[in-house]
Amino acid sequence: MDVVNPTPSITVRYPGTLREYVRGVSKLQVAATDVRSALDLLERDHPELYRNICDETGKVRQHLNVFVNSEHVRELSGLDTKLAPGDVLTILPAVSGG
Amino acid sequence: MAERVILSIGTKKGMFVAEAAKTRRKFELRGPFGQGVPVYSALTDTRNSPNIFFSSCNPFFGMKVMRSTDLGKTFKETKSAPAFPKEDGRALANIWSIETGAAKKELLAGVEPASLFRSRDNGDTWEMVEGISNHEHARKWQPGNGGLCMHTIIRDGSRVHLGISTGGHYMSEDGGETFHASNSGVGAGFNPDPYPEFGQCVHKIARHDDAPGRLYMQNHGGWGEWDGPGGRRPDIGVLRSDDHGKTWHSIAKGLPSDFGFPIVVHPHDPDVVYVMPLEGMTRTCPGGAPAVWRSETAGGTWHKLNKGLPRKSSYFTVQRDGMDVDTLKSPALYFGTTTGQLWMGREGGEEWECVFDSLPPIHCVKATVV
């Protein structure tokens, strides 16, 4: 099975290395109206995945980027960015390292 | 099974495990484990069947604690890693030390920002130890160059000693419930008061069961030529306590530099102690010629050990957990360098050979005989 949650509206996608925290599924669907509430739902329903995305204070980890469709949320309204049915929330590692 | 030497090697690009027969003629290398991210702490817990733990400092997805039950052939993430309570406001930045606790499945972890966590189930769940993590000094500690880290955890009966950079030495005398700063004689070069109550940049602390009350400390030295406020502070870098860490005094006389990171005690002789002096400004080997220095008199006199080590052009650093000693009858000393070399000094450091010469930069080395 590749999709969970019977009442989807927003698709959440994340790197393959995080699938082990959601029983191998490649994407999730959540009923959320903004990015913050989408993350809150991940915290409630998928806490192991959430811990990889946000730290204990609730901040998105420093080296991760969050996109709504193809726009980075920092170019929108950050975690308050509104979501519409059918939007795709994508979480990706930043290009950083050494 | 015959005795085996296990080296847990934490690097900038993951964890390696090296295994050899007790002759130590050839080490088999396994790894890297942990998605190629930095590893600052490792522990081989031999209280029951051996478990190897390491902390994986994943800059993307946060801290993980990894556990192996097959001597480092495979590792699996534990069910959780230390994490501050949500309302605390602090976020875990690194795990700098993992040590065994008092109870059978108890582990302790020293983290950044400097705090202590306890697991009672072999690393699957963790709770913050309030007595030090919320100590009245905790919000006044400052990060050193490596971050605000709790890097040393030493248990001695009901006493627990902690090393914090920069916070100093803290001790508990009630099994780890409450802690107090205990830095009498521990100098600080970067503070107007050369001997503050707390805030010293302690680099590492070591002890031996056969010398009750004695502790050795590698402190942040290198202030012998300081001509700024407060004046020169020579020889504050290598210290000893003979009263369970209540007071400290210098044992740095005779060393080429009192700056360094690791300090290690011989497994069978509490009077034998090893340091790796580095130049204070560059944190590299003095004159480009690395040497471990050994005292056989608990710091009274020091002797250079460099047979087999490069005599020039070697400017690496050995970090605070980058040196260890195994426990065989004639023990070998090991150190890993920021240039990725793993050196072994047979007969307690008398003769050195390079075991691996091209690993990623090495953060920690732990030697265990199983």
Topology of this structure?
The complex is a heterodimer of chains A (98) and B (370).
Chain A: E1 10-13, E2 27-30, H1 35-45, H2 47-53, E3 64-68, E4 71-72, E5 88-93
Parallel strand pairs in A: 1-5
Antiparallel strand pairs in A: 1-2, 3-4, 3-5
Helix pairs in contact in A: 1-2
Chain B: E1 4-11, E2 14-21, E3 28-33, E4 42-45, E5 51-58, E6 62-68, E7 76-77, E8 94-100, E9 107-112, E10 115-119, E11 127-128, H1 130-133, E12 149-156, E13 159-165, E14 168-172, E15 180-181, E16 202-206, E17 215-219, E18 238-241, E19 249-250, E20 263-265, E21 273-275, E22 292-295, E23 303-305, E24 323-325, E25 333-336, E26 342-345, H2 346-349, E27 351-356, E28 362-369
Antiparallel strand pairs in B: 1-2, 1-28, 2-3, 4-5, 5-6, 6-7, 8-9, 9-10, 10-11, 12-13, 13-14, 14-15, 16-17, 17-18, 18-19, 20-21, 21-22, 22-23, 24-25, 25-26, 26-27
Report the count of strand segments of chain B. 28
Roughly what percent helix of chain B? under 10%
What is the radius of gyration of chain B computed over CA atoms, rounded to a whole number of angstroms? 19 Å
Give the oligomer, counting copies of the same chain as homo and different chains as hetero.
heterodimer
* Helix proportion of chain A: 10-25%
CATH superfamily of chain B: YVTN repeat-like/Quinoprotein amine dehydrogenase
Q: If interface size is counted as residues with C-beta under 8 Å from the partner's C-beta, which chains form the largest one? A: A-B, 18 and 15 residues
CATH class division of chain B: Mainly Beta
Poorly predicted regions of chain A:
none
Question: What's the structural domain tally of chain A?
Answer: 1
Order of helices and strands of chain A: EEHHEEE
Order of helices and strands of chain B: EEEEEEEEEEEHEEEEEEEEEEEEEEEHEE
**Helix/strand/pairing class of chain B, anyone?**
mainly beta
Major sheet details of chain A = 5 strands, mixed
β-strand amount of chain B:
35-45%
Name the strands of the widest sheet of chain A in spatial order: 2-1-5-3-4
Number of distinct beta strands of chain A: 5
The overall pLDDT of chain B, averaged over residues, is 96
